[in-house]
Amino acid sequence: MQEQALKEFERDVVYLDALSNETRQKIIILLGSHLEEGLTVNELAEKLELSQPATSHNLRALKDVGMISSTRSGTQQFYYLTLDETILRLESLLAAIKASYPYSAAAKVIESERKSKK
Predict the structure, then answer these.
(1) pTM for the whole thing?
(2) What is the pLDDT of residues 76-104, one digit of tens each?
(3) What is the distance between the alpha carbons of residues 70 and 39, in angstroms, rounded to a whole number?
(4) Closest CA relative to residue 62, chosen from 102, 19, 32, 91
(5) Cα–Cα distance between 79 and 28 in angstroms, integer?
(6) Which residue, of 61, 88, 92, 102, is most buried by count of CB atoms within 10 Å of its CB?
(7) How many domains does the chain have?
């Protein structure tokens, strides 16, 4: 069981890496608040108070793992959240971890505390 969890983790570490960056987290939050219309790189850069190249770099990292997508309208590129695959991968990873550690030490402590409060 633990071997399966490790395989899942190794396969999905790119998602965790992308989510570990504070700027990328902010981009996801901003795009989440503009689901219908999306945002351009310049709009994101302004809201994040970052340069356009720094914003583009972070957008590329998110796009590479499939967390966002973009569409072109005239001369502008609009970015949107596309988290479906990411959510499925992370759910699968959590399921594998739970299956590997069905009754972890933390769960035992929580259960013990709950019983002592009764």
Answers:
(1) 0.73
(2) 999 999 877 777 877 877 777 777 776 65
(3) 9
(4) 19
(5) 10
(6) 61
(7) 1
